[in-house]
Records
---
Amino acid sequence: MNVRKALFAAVIAASGLALAGQAMAASPWGLWKRPNGEIAKVWKCGGGMCGAIEKGKKKGFVMFKGIKKAGSVWKGDMKHPSMPGFMTFNGTVKLLSANKLKVQGCAIGQSMCDAETWVRVK
């Protein structure tokens, strides 16, 4: 009986570790590859999310800073590295899967939007 309980406890513990690993893998934090090949870093900051180009032509360019979580997405002001620095867009970031992140910016309300899907760098 004790062996059975120990085995059951081991199975439960292993299941918990597997679920914890999945939860960690489903985090937006880390390095992401943009469609143009640049590498962006996404991290927690100011109670929200920040994202900047880590490797590429515009290294150090901050795309979003302190955007806040609203349901399953993060929302806030964004900048695009190929647009003039004074331009700000209504942005959203959504984790599509453990390895895909959708980054979208809109101008003039929601009438003109552009989006990229970033892939996690392993």
---
Amino acid sequence: MTTTKDLSRRQVREKVLQALYAYVITHDEPKYIKETLLISTSSLNNDKEFAHTLFDVVINNEDKLSKYIKGLSENWGVERIAIIDKILLKMGMCEMLFFEEIPTKVTLNEIIELAKTFSTNKSPKFINGILNAFLQKETKSGIIVKQGRGLK
């Protein structure tokens, strides 16, 4: 049961974004980051598992996701991409790849909204372009498969 104290999925994604940013900047152990930024957030109640899983999946697939970003941003050096944008791209890619129950349209909308809030004015368009290219390529190759009503 959701209470008014529970965070929305977007707010949960914000918390994960903050935790991943802290991880990238501090190089602290993922367990420490989760304990201080995710576990201690009691308002995550219903989506605590989602928050932890998304955080872990991004960390555990860092190399694979970085290669995707590099391949899809050929005309834009990876070193020029803002840290927040890289994290948002990785979060979006992970949701598309590993969270079968989340529609890709929801993921795209949520990641773009986070970019509007936490990054530059040009970031939403850039992130949308990269994630759309990723989605088209990986759906065509059969890597992204969504199951269930409204997900195909």
---
Amino acid sequence: MIFIAVAVAIGVGAFIAGWYLGQPSRPDADKNSPYECGFEAFEDARMKFDVRYYLVAILFILFDLEIAFLFPWGVVLEKIGRFGFLAMVVFLTILVVGFVYEWAKGALDWE
């Protein structure tokens, strides 16, 4: 309970200090202008994204992890022998089959 009380006190204290020490709020045209992209927003920020963006991100993570497993496997290949080689062949085969399936279904086509 003491830790929770101290954490809440620090959080509330920081919030109050920021409110007292902050600049007075005087918004003008320059402060309210867009600064990230340089032009006014032309669509709603909550617009729907195409699912292909997420699919490409998932594929990137998948093949990035594949490479992360290939490096240590390549380093110890002589020690793990034929069994380790065959295990990696099975692993890569499963990934390639999944990639070919997605490619055949047209998931990677940009229209």
